[in-house]
Specification:
Layout (H helix, E strand, L loop, with lengths): L1 H12 L5 H7 L4 H4 L1 H24 L1 H20 L4 H15 L2 H12 L5 H29 L4 H4 L2 H14 L15 H20 L9 H23 L13 H32 L3 H26 L4 H19 L8 H27 L4 H44 L5 H13 L7 H36 L19
Helix pairs in contact: 1-7, 1-8, 4-5, 4-6, 4-7, 4-11, 4-17, 5-6, 5-10, 7-8, 7-17, 8-14, 8-16, 11-12, 11-17, 13-14, 13-16, 13-17, 13-19, 14-16, 15-16, 15-19, 17-19, 18-19
Length: about 500
């Protein structure tokens, strides 16, 4: 089950470093290729909260097996895609069926295993849930460089078959209740799909479309708000709700979801920000980026067993606080970033990121789900995982917006500094022209182009530094919400308190 979840989460980011190769392979435009990732995300976030109801109807065994089979089949079809339209359809279906595997694993952890066993289990689950998106671009870069983009999807086939067979033979936690299918609210499902789909798309495309300056984004936000209000009204007034929000009566689940949302910003935001810097400022390839950022995965792997043991001994609020302090220190250090930074300068911030992710993930999961009743956990697991994904989506939207705005500001200031008449600018340009003298009459134009590139790289670096500083304030600020969380009593889990 854990490996199935790993594949589903990994595929969110595995294509991110190879979109150019996929674009060339299926003859897609620059505007179209982003849908290879967006379609998967939209479909996945729809399935995640739906999984609780489906597991009650079908049982964990049938749902997980069907999800693994569907995910494997759709992975193969993605690899066989010959056009962008085919790819979008298969990626959406892949994300939808694969999305059921993620919350199901979390639910099983807290319904099957006793509290003393979770010291071992939850760090493993936390490691997989955070490691998969972190190493996704690295794995994708290696596969594309060594083989072809088709193997981004073909790599899932044999493991997917093994997961499906293992799930069918080994899972026997509960029994299906097919009578519940009669109460399935299809209208609520449609509203949920429209609500989360438009929300995800608006967050993905908003920064590049200048948000409400775009009529499309404005229309989508209106549809999102309208369908969201209709969905919540229908669910909250239904005798058989599609998504059970009863877990939000639990104080720890509410506060844990807030921290999970914030952690999603750190997880997906930093997984995006570091590669952007290395690619745009240093022109690193996907393989070079993966090699530079590999240390985060190593730090997470080494911290996982330590986090598990500490979770059984320390106050969870202290662990969460330490995790976000680590996040904050790491981003504060990174806010001093310059165009000259590379592996050695990024080493400590990355180690802090990896360690902090594990401290936060393990503890937040335990606190959020560990005090819910078995009946609540199935639905709550989907909602909990949804908060992390939405945190990532919101975080990326904010990061891209801030980065674009600050880059425009820094570009304007730097252009003033290197305009004609500035002694330093003219001296630098003269030196560059002299160095490029072998180009003859083209030396002046080449020097001017190189200077413009230097200005853009500097502006990009300064904008990224501003984003790191903003994230620092967020991570330190969230600590003040820790008093909202109650310390669970020893051995809680499934108590419903």
């Amino acid at each position: 089950m854990v490996f199935g979840m790993f594949m589903a989460i990994l595929d969110i980011q595995i294509v991110s470093s190879s979109l150019a190769e996929i674009q060339a392979g299926i003859s897609a435009s620059a505007d179209e290729i982003s849908w290879v990732q967006t379609s998967y995300l939209i479909a996945e976030v729809v399935m995640i909260p739906l999984s609780g109801m489906l597991s009650r109807i079908l049982s964990t065994r049938i749902l997980f097996t069907a999800s693994a089979i569907g995910f494997t089949a759709m992975s193969f079809m993605c690899a066989m895609s010959g056009s962008i339209n085919e790819m979008i359809v298969w990626r959406a279906l892949q994300g939808f069926v694969g999305g059921a595997m993620i919350p199901t694993v979390f639910a099983v952890t807290f319904t099957v295993f006793p509290a003393d066993k979770r010291v071992i289990i939850t760090p493993v689950i936390g490691l997989i849930a955070t490691l998969a998106p972190t190493i996704g671009p690295t794995v994708g870069g290696y596969l594309t460089e060594l083989f072809s983009w088709h193997w981004l999807f073909l790599i899932n086939v044999i493991p997917g078959i093994a997961v499906a067979i293992g799930a069918w033979l080994l899972i026997d936690f509960d029994k299906p209740d097919f009578k519940l299918a009669k109460t399935f609210d299809w209208a609520a499902l449609a509203l949920l799909a429209v609500f989360l789909g438009t929300l995800e798309y608006a967050l993905e495309e908003g920064p590049s479309e200048n948000w409400f300056e775009s009529r499309l984004i404005l229309s989508l936000v209106f549809i999102c708000v309208t369908s969201g209000m209709a969905f919540f009204w229908r669910v909250l007034t239904s005798r058989y709700p599609l998504v059970d929000f009863a877990a939000f009566k639990n104080r720890n689940f509410v506060s844990g979801s807030i921290f999970s949302f914030t952690m999603g910003i750190g997880l997906y935001g930093l997984t995006y920000l570091y590669p952007v810097y290395l690619a745009r400022v240093h022109n690193y390839s996907a393989l070079q980026i993966g090699e530079t950022l590999f240390v985060t995965g190593v730090a997470m792997f080494l911290t996982a067993p330590i986090a598990g043991r500490l979770s059984a001994k320390l106050d969870p609020r202290l662990m969460i606080g330490l995790g976000f302090v680590g996040f904050g220190i790491g981003t504060w250090m990174a806010s001093a970033i310059t165009v000259d930074w590379s592996y050695s300068e990024l080493l400590v911030p990355q180690i802090l990121r990896g360690v902090s992710l594990m401290l936060c993930m393990v503890t937040i999961t335990n606190v959020s789900l560990g005090t819910l009743s078995p009946l609540q956990i199935r639905g709550a697991s989907g909602l909990f995982n949804l908060t992390r994904n939405l945190g990532g989506a919101v975080g990326l939207a904010i990061i891209n917006t801030v980065m674009n705005d600050r880059m425009d500001l820094h570009l304007a200031r730097l252009r003033d500094a290197v305009s004609w008449g500035k002694p330093i600018a003219e001296s630098t340009l003269d030196n560059m022209t002299a160095a490029l003298a072998p180009l003859g009459s083209d030396a002046g134009a080449a020097a001017l182009s190189r200077l413009a590139g230097m200005v853009r790289r500097q502006a990009m670096t300064m904008a990224i530094a501003d984003v790191f500083l903003l994230l620092t304030m967020l991570f330190f600020g969230i600590i003040f919400l820790l008093p909202l969380m109650r310390k669970p009593s020893t051995g809680t889990g499934g108590s419903g308190h």
